[in-house]
Amino acid sequence: MIKIFSFFLVSLLIISCSLNKNSKIWNKKDIKVEENKDLKIVLDEKKISYSELNPNIKLDLSNISVGGKILNNKNNYGAQKYSGNFKKIKKFKFSKFTFENQIDFQPIFLRDGIILFDAKGSIIRYDNNAKIVWKKNFYKKSEKKNNPRLFLAIKENRLIVIDSLSNLFLVNLENGNLIWSTKNEYPFNSEIKILNEKFFAVDIKNILRCFYIKDGSECWSLETDKTLTLSNSKNSLIISNKLVVFVNNLGDVTAADIQSGAMVWQLPTQSSAIANSTYSFKNSKLVLDEDEIYFSNNFNEFHSINLNNGSINWINDISSSLTPIIVNSLIFTISENGYLFVIDKKTGNIIKIKDVFKNYKDKDKKKIKPMGFSISQDKVYLTNSDGKLTIIELNTGDIAKVENISRSLISKPFLFNNNLFVIKNGGIVKYE
Q: Considering its fold, how many domains does the chain have in total?
């Protein structure tokens, strides 16, 4: 009897997974939504194996618009201008981090230089020639030993800093002098977003907090459910005129009124049991385009959500914790196992899937993870956990070149001011 019940239960699970109506594929033979029979769900590992789809389709991106911002309140970077000469010209050196995964941070890119931090929490401003303009450290000796992780943002001539030790700082951008410092109740683990004279961040207890820039005092806070384990990834925020929206490390997406902090809507995307069961659960950054929010996770879910009410537009079976990039009407993302996806942003239909790890041997593919990617007017620049950068033709998905950047872990590539930057442990490498 037990065997019969077990067989019935497994059969029911398989049937329910195969009837996923949210997974959408566009086929150039007949333009309609259909089930992709090549997608195989492995229940115990919660993984999907992909195969290429319409790999020879060429995308018409002749009218592509190229932006110039690497930071904005919507995380909607789009394509950035880069000529692609890929000639190494500078290295901005700093003391090495104890843990390699600490290189996963966002430097501040300025027209006349870069601001970043090192292993001891020193904040460093460089000019474009990699010369130090100023270097400041506001930590006690005991705090330096804890290798603080810093999150940075700028508002005019002021640098806002929060960290993994619960500190908040405001620093003069011109000379590095401290304007004020204060403490939060818990350490931070999020990017910073700014609107007018307020800034917003999330701490490790999944509490969204609003602060005044003038003195670091708190405007309001909004508490959401806590996890049993600490997340390995940063919480992400976006801001519209009336709402601040964030995703916590449980996968809950929450929108708050930007003035009062009152909750407007909340959308759980995972059961707490699933999210609490693994330290490896990761969300991508939220990306806001018009009134739609896009994000994905490494649990095979790519979401499109309405900004105003939190309703789901569509969900697709794509496993990725990388920030999706929107170019015109298309979304680009890269899965955990190295497949480039091109998606119609309105319908969620998958237009194309291309294997960009095809040059790796099968045994090596299992060891390698994509670290991040950026898009120029004609190329995709993808960094991998083996220290290599793969250059991909944007319209075809074909691999144009593979460059060795480092023998160890490297960051996502950043495109800014017609240059490409990659962080490795001990420095940022700049290419023209």
A: 1
* Structural domain for 331, as ranges: 59-106+323-432
Model confidence band, residue 408 (pLDDT cutoffs 50, 70, 90): confident
Q: List helix spans (H) across 251-403.
A: 272-276, 362-365
Asked if residue 267 lies in contact with residue 253, where contact means CB atoms within 8 angstroms, the answer is yes
Q: Any idea which residue has 């908040």 for tokens?
A: 168
- Report pLDDT digits (tens) over 321-377: 999 999 999 999 999 999 999 999 999 999 999 999 998 988 888 889 999 999 999
Q: Please check whether residue 43 lies inside any domain of the structure.
A: no
**What is this structure's pTM?**
0.87
Indicate the SS3 state at residue 312: strand
Question: Is 363 within the bounds of a domain?
Answer: yes
Strand 178-183 versus strand 193-195 pairing type: unpaired
CA distances from 42 to 45, 139, 257 (A): 6, 47, 40
Q: Is residue 426 part of a domain?
A: yes
Question: Alpha-carbon distance 410 to 148, whole Å?
Answer: 19
Question: Is residue 262 domain-resident?
Answer: no
Please give the torsion angle defined by the CA atoms of residues 313, 316, 322 and 324, in that order, rounded to the nearest 10 degrees: -50
CB neighbour class for 232 (10 Å; exposed up to 12, middle 13-18, buried from 19): middle
Q: How far apart are CA 373 and CA 413, in angstroms?
A: 6
Type of residue found at 144 = K
Q: Report pLDDT digits (tens) over 295-304.
A: 999 999 999 9
386, 64 Cβ separation under 8 angstroms:
no
Amino acid at 173: L
DSSP string, 144-211: HTT---EEEEEETTEEEEEETTSEEEEEETTT--EEEEEE-SS-B-B--EEETTEEEEEBTT-EEEEE
